[in-house]
């Protein structure tokens, strides 16, 4: 049985859709019941969580708070969910003798001051508390007796996503100007949700490991805005808002995931954006 914590979220919903297509057995756990497949469970509730795990389960631990900007102001809440919640998942997996934990981490574990290519051996040095919770979550999972795979995702986008690509497209559909924080020269590696799901499925069938899951290509937010306007054949105004934003310039190397997992992102950014327009 594949058990998905946070299975009603962006990645969880896409994973459930794929598992149904593959006719794989799964169980969805989530703090809310907006997904009809979900059993309502809060990962901060140890006993309730333990009751949902069985011997031999594969746990895909997606449940987390993910807003990097709010995390610095809500550290106690992020600690409870992202760190203690992950500890509860690990403890329950050990007690119930689960087969494996897949732990989605994030590019946020790396410092925005890194240059060139970052690999899994690059020192973690987060810019925000969200990134800190992911580093601590990784440590908890790596120390577990339950076999595990850690996947550090770059910036995911796709249907029902909430990131900058989805925000820009929503603005285009309502014919509003596109707002860019800071200079817009900051770069991001955008990976389509379908490629994320491919990586999770590969990890389910792999041995232990820690991997960057990315396209190994980045684009500035200015370039992204212009690309989306071009593909949508619109000519809306681009506004810059003076807000402090991580000036990321590095590229996440996915070479290890290619080598060990056979992972290779299939969806080009232009094609992914076209699919959302």
What does this structure look like?
This protein has about 280 residues and is an alpha/beta fold. The protein has helices at about 10-20, 45-50, 70, 75-95, 130-140, 165-175, 195-205, 220-230, 255-260, 270-275, and strands spanning about 1-5, 25-30, 40, 60, 100-105, 115-120, 150-155, 155, 180, 185-190, 190, 210-215, 220, 240, 250. It has a single domain (about 1-160, about 190-215, about 250-265), classed as Rossmann fold. It has a 7-stranded parallel sheet with strand order 3-2-1-4-5-7-12, with helices on both faces. The chain is globular, with a radius of gyration of 19 Å. The model has no long low-confidence stretch (mean pLDDT about 95).
Number of beta-strand segments: 15
The biggest beta sheet is recorded as: 7 strands, parallel
Helix-strand pattern, N to C? EHEEHEHHEEHEEHEEEHEEHEEHH
| Global mean pLDDT | 94
Q: What is the architecture at the second tier of CATH? A: 3-Layer(aba) Sandwich
Helical element count?
10
Q: What is the fourth-level CATH superfamily?
A: NAD(P)-binding Rossmann-like Domain
In which range does the helix fraction lie?
25-40%
């Amino acid at each position: 049985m594949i058990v998905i914590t946070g299975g009603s979220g962006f990645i969880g919903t896409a994973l459930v859709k794929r598992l149904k297509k593959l006719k794989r057995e799964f169980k969805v756990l989530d703090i809310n019941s907006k997904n009809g497949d979900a059993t309502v469970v809060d990962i901060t509730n140890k006993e309730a969580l333990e009751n949902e795990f069985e011997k031999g389960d594969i746990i895909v631990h997606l449940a987390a708070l993910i807003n990097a900007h709010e995390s610095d102001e809500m550290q106690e809440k992020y600690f409870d969910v992202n760190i203690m919640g992950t500890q509860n998942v690990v403890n329950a997996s050990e007690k119930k003798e689960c087969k494996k934990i897949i732990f989605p981490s994030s590019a946020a574990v790396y410092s925005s001051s890194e240059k060139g290519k970052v690999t899994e051996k690059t020192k973690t040095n987060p810019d925000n508390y969200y990134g800190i919770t992911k580093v601590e979550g990784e440590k908890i999972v790596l120390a577990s007796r339950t076999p595990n795979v850690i996947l550090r995702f770059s910036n995911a986008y796709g249907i029902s996503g909430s990131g900058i690509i989805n925000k820009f497209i929503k603005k285009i559909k309502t014919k509003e100007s596109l707002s860019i924080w800071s200079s817009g020269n900051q770069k991001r590696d955008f990976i389509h949700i379908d490629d994320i799901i491919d990586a999770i499925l590969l990890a389910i069938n792999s041995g232990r490991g820690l991997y960057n899951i990315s396209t190994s290509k980045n684009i500035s937010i200015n370039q992204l805005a212009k690309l989306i306007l071009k593909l949508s054949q619109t000519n809306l105004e681009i506004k810059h808002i003076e807000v402090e934003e991580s000036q990321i310039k590095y590229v996440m190397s996915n070479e290890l995931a290619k080598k060990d997992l056979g992972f290779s992102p299939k969806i080009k950014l232009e094609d992914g954006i076209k699919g959302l327009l």
